[in-house]
């Protein structure tokens, strides 16, 4: 809460609970990305090039961490807006997650192409 503002009366609990469910969805998405990174490291360690699987695994784990942290930040900002009766702030979390995953998928496609051509 910004300095100098007092704690407002709490709004309808349905809004807070919906915001919490959204946070949990972001956390599940982050956890799934981390699990995908671990699976990538375990089952495709040398994809295309010797470091390919490890690079994709690290990218997925970092994307998962960023998704969870971004979801938490979004939840905090939305909770503050709900409590103060202000409009919900815009969020770059969905755009960032989509861009990160798209970049990882392009890298995976290139590495799979290298693997297929090299075989």
Automatic annotation (TrEMBL):
Residues 14-80 form the DUF202 domain. It is a multi-pass membrane protein. Keywords: Cell membrane, Membrane, Transmembrane, Transmembrane helix. InterPro entries: DUF202 (IPR003807), IM_YidH-like (IPR052053). It comes from the Bacteria. It is found in: Cell membrane. GO terms for cellular component: plasma membrane. This is Putative membrane protein. It comes from Geodermatophilus ruber.
């Amino acid at each position: 809460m910004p300095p100098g503002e007092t704690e407002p009366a709490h709004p309808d609990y349905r809004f807070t609970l919906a915001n919490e469910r959204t946070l949990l969805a972001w956390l599940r998405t982050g956890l799934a990305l981390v699990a995908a990174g671990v699976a990538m490291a375990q089952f495709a360690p040398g994809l295309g090039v010797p470091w390919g699987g490890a690079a994709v695994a690290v990218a997925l784990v970092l994307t998962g961490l960023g998704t969870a942290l971004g979801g938490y930040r979004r939840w905090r900002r939305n909770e503050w807006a709900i409590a103060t009766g202000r409009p919900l702030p815009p969020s770059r979390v969905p755009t960032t997650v989509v861009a990160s995953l798209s970049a990882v998928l392009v890298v995976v496609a290139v590495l799979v192409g290298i693997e297929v051509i090299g075989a």
